[in-house]
Amino acid sequence: MVLTSRWTWRTAARFYVRGEAFCPYRLAGSALSGPLRGDNEDERRAISQPNPLPPLLMSSTTTLGHFHFAFVNAEATGLIYAHGEVLPRLCIELKLRTPRERVKAEIHFLRLQVQYAGEVLAEGTSSGDFVDFYDRRVIVESPIGRRALEFVNERLVADRVDLTLLLSGWMRIHYDPEDGESLPVDLPADGWTFTTFGMNSTASIMLQVPRGEWFKQVIEPVGTIEYVLTEIPLLKGGVGVALEKSYKQLQEAERHWATGNDPSVFFHCKGAIEALPGWPQRIFDPLVDQTKAKYLDRLVHSAKNYFDHGRHIAQSGLQEGEFPVDHQEAQFALALTKVLLAEVGGALGARSWG
To answer: Which tens digits make up the pLDDT trace of 217-231?
Structure first.
């Protein structure tokens, strides 16, 4: 039996404890938290016609329920991976539990929608999950296309991927009454009733996936491309503060690459090089081998000249009057800058300035 009216929902979710109406599932901090008395007209009006709540902030946890009533707590554990080269599937683990021991739930249908930057990447479903007061882990598989994965990679400018998980579906919930506690007449004798969730209320989870884990656990397993991740040391102290200027220029270059502004990628890659401590000819002075230091200084200087060429309008040829760079060249410039900053960071970290 599916209950639909507000009054039926209100009565089905209320139970009587020592002569007072009490809802064990109400969201903490909501306008309806605390015991409810049935003899107050204002409270009855608030129950039957609940005021709309402000939009909930995204977090790593959410509640599944109807209106103000929460029956199941849902949380993203952080486990995410993909598999399948013919039909790639994105797998995300959720942890489910009821808010108290006497509440049980049978999730008959759960839909998980994965969003990134306002676009839907994938949708998956799960069913037949029994939930009680103890943690239950559920992995939801969602078919995902390579175009969706490319969409994320092209816009990835930070050190993590921010995914939004939207949950909806329906479930059967049960409340085991305390001794001397009676149930509303609307509730079936066995104490079970159906409810939907995520339809008229927010059931969203923010899942932050580290950049390296995204490439290793999600991208590589579904294709033939393997990624070699460049790790840039983030040093502390005086040298680290000096390198932060280069890191910020690199982040700006990533942002412009994601939006297709290729000349600006070259501009900020050049800025990242020129912001290095010791620029232009003493960047690698901390190295013991000064011959190697000179070669590396020349290498960085040559990269800067290459970046400088990409930010000037061509004066002749097929690209006359335009910036002589494309998106692939901008990607190369970005990768080259990361490698050089990683080398500089490693050198400065191994032997600090004297």
So the answer is: 998 888 756 555 556
